[in-house]
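User: Show me a protein chain along with its predicted structure.
Assistant: Here is one chain, sequence first, then structure tokens.
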Amino acid sequence: MTMLIDTPRSYFYTYINQLLDGIKRDSSPAEKKALLKSIIKFLDENSRNPKNFADLVNFQFNWREDPILIPLWLYISFKMEYLYKNQRTLEAREKKLKPILDKFLNIVMLDFKSPQGWSATALAGRFGYWYTAYRLASVDPFAAGDKDMILQYCSSILNRDKKLRVMTILVMEQIPDIEEKINNQTADSGRTALHYACAYSNPEIVEWLIAKGIEVNRQDVAGHTPLWHCISGVELGIQHGEFRTGAQVIMEYLLAHGADPHIPNHKGKYFIDHLKKNYRNDERIVQMIMAMPKPESDSAEPTVAVKSVGLVKAIADDVVHNHDPELLEKGYEEIVLSLLTLFQRLAVIEFYPKDVMEILSRRKRLYNNKFDKSSQNRISISYKSKEIIRQIVNISLREDSLVTINPTTQRCCVKA
């Protein structure tokens, strides 16, 4: 009978760090092979007691100066894949790294999520460890979930190497129920993976995302559809302000697959005007846009599309005024309740407290512009975001609440 002995943490961490410190990307193939063999042998020796081994490799610590909290097993995977980042296919990396990932995935419970809300898969993608991300994506319960950015990281490759973009597509294909998660938006900017793929001029990824059912007209918090990001993003070899040749192909593809260039952003500006003003005019794109019919706008009441973040800013001021002319004379709770009622009527289902502040500051500016600076009718009150948030939280706790709020992201959902 084999006796299972717990490996002391201090010994395990000291020895594994000594091995990892020897990692150099420019080491010879023989040196890399020897190092990989030593680490696998050391892990084999310490995995005879599975419980003790799991405790050791699941230990979490702050990595990098950021800092980012990660478990030791993920750190070891990153350090080992770093040796083979010059391998441009997953197959080539797998030949070297499969034993390491097999060892961890057989013992590790994938319940890790960083304080920032990132999954282990997203962290691997963020730093370009695509084989690690590929192996984790199919079994990581948090991959492409709420606040997770693995789809965005996969779509924001700034590299001319087509093989690298193919790698990231293979990672996304491993994520279970990808069609249900494909439209996930970032918590801060409201951007989908398609926004990023357009911004970084990745045509293969754009085609794959559209084939998976991503919405080509989903707006971010500024009201920009992915089409806008074909202009405002980056591309290797293209200086700021120059027309992005790679993005031109993507714009044509988007327009051919349902992208609507006539959707204004939250400042009421249109894509074609932005194109003409800031970049060298491309006649083919302009002709395609001009040939597309504009939506009719003869409805009596402006409407706001649902399932988008930040659309509160798109609500016309006269709609707010007609709904509640005395809005600025109310207290914080009455202001919030009044706007929640308006959001329900206009089918707005998501917003942030800062959107409420935007409406109030806009109403205040428009109101005060009607009067001289010395007039007593001018409004001088200063609305406080903390008080707005507090009132939304208070209202969300009621049984008949019109709204729910996530205290971490401050994203608010209006109940239908």
